[in-house]
Write a structure and sequence with these properties.
mainly alpha; 421 residues
């Protein structure tokens, strides 16, 4: 509650019959006293009472604006977070009926409250405060930089609450104006927000690429750059196995900073198409965020699915063919589940080969036999590959026969004489 002295002075000013112009100096003096003399407990309530008074019928809009600007800055200076929020919230409520006339002051109060809520780790309330700012206004000029900065801040606040849907809405708004913004820091914040949203949506390949690009930014400290590189590696590891992921892994593996990362050992194994052990996977899982361990539609986790697909791809490099049951043992899955994974990867073109369901065999990279399920999208290409392989083998055999014949002729010339005869 406001102090008795402030309430008394405000009452006199409101009841005074003097002109508005004569009241302004008295309000200025009172505001100065409130700021300099009020104790911590009364500063917020005194400012609230002051704002209620100047936004009443005592002063006009023109006279009230500069006084309100000073009062808002005084609210910003309140050190106690709860008092600051209380005073700012009351000021917004008072402004609401006349917000069209005080849009700039309303925006400033909302920014002050957003800072306070963010300091209290109330990110959702901070985002809602900023959402209320009128950025498409005919009453004041708002630069593209200011709009983008506000939208990106709202986006980042929603990300702190893992609300990626709301965050993406504001990121898309910022994207439409980003080409007009020259502020490198804003561009960097945009990329980081974009990477986090892609990561949360499990678009791991795209997220890894954005994280990796950001990791080269000299605007970040060395520690932040390495953390961003670590995020890029994690996303690449979680991505579905296939050619696109292989290219991403290659780029990260060749990064000279990669050996410093904790994830380097698993990155190296994935890049070199080596099988991953359950112990390595469990150690890696301990470092993942909750959304990266979420279950997918088939009941497996994102990590388990990525590791299974990788090990299947690694198996295709190790074996020309393998039984479905044996593949299940290798992947620590039931035979039917292993066949389902292999079938899906074959159909998507991430592994070349075929499944012979009669014999229960999987052949990688070629055709043998009749009744099977074939990756038809790759069939013609695989057939041509088989023919080229056959030609190379025939050519190798004939060259070897010719070499042996030449050696025999050199060592036993009388054989050539007899043959000629």
């Amino acid at each position: 509650m406001a102090s008795a002295e402030v309430v008394s002075v405000l009452a006199k000013l409101e009841s005074s019959s003097t002109s508005q112009q004569d009241k302004v100096p008295n309000y200025n003096d009172l505001l100065h006293n409130i700021i300099t003399e009020s104790d911590t407990a009364h500063l917020g309530p005194n400012l609230t009472a002051f704002i209620d008074s100047i936004l009443g019928d005592t002063l006009g809009i023109v006279s009230a604006r500069p006084l309100l600007n000073t009062a808002v800055e005084a609210i910003r200076s309140i050190k106690d977070i709860d008092n600051k929020i209380s005073a700012g919230t009351r000021a917004l409520q008072t402004l609401e009926p006349r917000v069209v006339s005080f849009e700039e002051q309303d925006a400033t109060i909302r920014e002050v409250l957003a800072d306070a809520y963010q300091e209290n780790d109330e990110f959702l309330e901070a985002a809602r405060m900023l959402q209320g700012i009128q950025l498409e206004s005919s009453q004041r000029r708002i630069t593209d930089d200011s709009k983008v900065r506000t939208w990106i801040r709202i986006c980042r606040l929603f990300l702190e609450e893992d609300d990626t849907t709301s965050a993406e809405t504001y990121l898309n708004r910022a994207k439409n104006l980003l080409y007009k913004v020259n502020d490198q820091e804003l561009n960097l914040q945009f990329q980081l927000s974009q990477a986090r949203i892609l990561d949360a949506r499990r678009s791991f390949i795209e997220a890894s690429q954005v994280y990796h690009n950001v990791s080269f930014s000299m605007m970040l400290e060395e520690g932040e750059r390495l953390r961003t590189l670590s995020s890029a590696i994690v996303c690449a590891i979680l991505a579905p196995a296939g050619p696109q992921r292989s290219r991403t892994l290659a780029k990260l593996y060749k990064d000279e900073r990669a050996p410093q990362m904790e994830e380097f050992s698993i990155l190296e194994k994935m890049f070199l198409d080596r099988l991953l052990t359950p112990k390595e996977v469990a150690a890696f899982a301990d470092k993942l965020a909750p959304h990266q361990l979420a279950e997918t539609a088939d009941g497996s986790t994102v990590l388990a699915k990525a590791v299974t697909e990788h090990n299947l791809l690694a198996a295709s490099r190790l074996y020309n063919n393998i039984g479905v049951a044996e593949l299940g043992l290798l992947l620590d899955l039931e035979a039917e589940k292993a066949e389902e994974y292999a079938s899906r990867m074959l159909e998507q073109g991430r592994v070349t080969g075929r499944i012979d369901q009669i014999d229960g065999m999987i052949f990688f990279g070629g055709h043998k036999g009749g009744s099977d399920r074939v990756n038809t999208a790759k069939a013609n290409g695989m057939a041509r590959t088989d023919l080229r392989n056959w030609d190379h083998k025939v050519q190798g055999i004939t060259e070897e026969v010719e070499r042996v014949a030449s050696l025999l002729q050199a060592q036993f010339p009388h054989l050539e004489t007899r043959t000629s005869a």
